[in-house]
Amino acid sequence: MHILIATPLIPPESGGPAYYSVALKEGLEQQGHAVSLVAFQEVRKYPKVLRHLMFLYHVLFAGLRADVFIILDTVSVALPSVIAGWVLGKKIIIRTGGDFVWESYVERTGEKVLLSEFYMAPRALSRKERLLVWLQKYIVFPLTTKVVFSTAYQRDIWAAPYAIPFSKTAIIENSYPQKEESAQGGDVFLCAWRPTGFKNIDTLERAYVLAQKKYPTMKLEIFKDIPRKELVVRMRTTRALVVPSLSEVSPNLGMEALAMGLPVILTSDCGTRDRFGDAVTWIDPVDPQSIADTLCSFMHEKVYADARHRAEAFTYTRTYADIAKEFLTLAKN
Q1: H/E element holding 326?
Q2: Which of 14, 115, 169, 179 is deepest in the core (most CB within 10 A)?
Q3: What is the mean pLDDT of residues 16-25?
Q4: Quick check: pTM over 0.85?
Q5: Numbers of helices and strands, H then E, in the chain
């Protein structure tokens, strides 16, 4: 079978789709399949309309030999890729990532609305946001053979507003790293984020001010766009990883932290809540006092030791070979 993967990013660019696309390609190739990889970043330097037309041409050309399209995006990459797949009569599998509409809305308005609540009430969306909803609802998803979610959480949120039939969906969880030697721990709480509103850093900063009133020696380091290698090094000498996002569909950094046995403090509006269970400590992301209380509790050695034990006891693993097999099952059915 020949498979085309259309992705927003490939290394050395950072971001989830970059690593996912390469790892999935390797997983599919190891099982004897030919894989072509087409990345949107190759045309990103051109004006908006032109770059989408150029990407459409690239996908059409690369897709001639393909049996199946796997598209790792639902907007910029998806629209030209889906049109190309439809024109060529190919099977099209889209894997969702985040929620571009929700992220854009939170960034633009500053409203701290959880993803799980976002579509429950009418919102004053911008013209761009309304267009994104329309394109996904009336073009991208109707022309797609299967829509793959990493969690049932996101599938349940999107099903109604994007009119996606349940029979058209599938769940393929992200990879979970194999357990490794436990992080040695430290005194500093760590938060790493990319500069966007839904990461909710201002609430964490307010919580930290509240926590310092009780524990003036408490330390929190917040890094923006830190290189991955440096982040991994810092995680090994950190007291706990803090992920205060309003919502997380599938928090990859939390998975990596648990593989190190590093305690994780994580937003309760999360797609992996059932999977993580009590391995992490859950917080209300819109309540600074709740976050502050959790930070303070981790200053008690007995509480902290219990958090480390719970993190170290989490042993669930999934490889990209597992993920590749599940994509192949969808491709063959």
Answers
A1: helix 320-332
A2: 115
A3: 84
A4: yes
A5: 14, 11
* Same domain assignment for residues 327 and 308: no
How large is the average pLDDT for residues 209-233?
91
Same domain, 281 and 327: no
* 183 belongs to a structural domain: no
Judge if 144 and 257 occupy the same domain. no
Instruction: Indicate which CATH number applies to the domain containing 13.
Output: 3.40.50.2000
CA distance 292 to 42: 43
User: What digits encode the pLDDT tens for the residues 246-272?
Assistant: 999 999 999 999 999 999 999 999 999
Q: Which amino acid is at 222?
A: I
Mean pLDDT across the chain: 93
Q: Residue type at 211?
A: A
Statement to judge: residues 294 and 324 lie in one domain = no
Please give the average per-residue pLDDT across 26-39, as a whole number.
Answer: 94
Contact of 191 with 204, CB cutoff 8 Å: yes
20 and 149 in a single domain? The answer is: yes
Structural domain harbouring 249: 188-312
Q: Note whether 74 and 100 are within 8 A (CB).
A: yes
Residue 289 has pLDDT above 90, yes or no: yes
Distance between CA atoms of residues 245 and 199, nearest Å: 4
**Phi-psi sector, 300: left (phi>0), alpha (psi -120 to 50), beta:** beta
Question: What is the rounded CA–CA span in Å between residue 145 and residue 188?
Answer: 47
In whole angstroms, what is the distance from residue 56 CA to residue 58 CA?
6
SS3 for 233? helix
Residues 90, 146: one domain? Answer: yes
319: CB partners within 8 A, 6+ apart: 27, 175, 178
Rg of the Cα atoms in the chain: 21
Domain identity same for 135 and 66: yes
Sign of the C-alpha dihedral, residues 125, 127, 132, 133? positive
Per the structure, the count of domains in the chain is 2
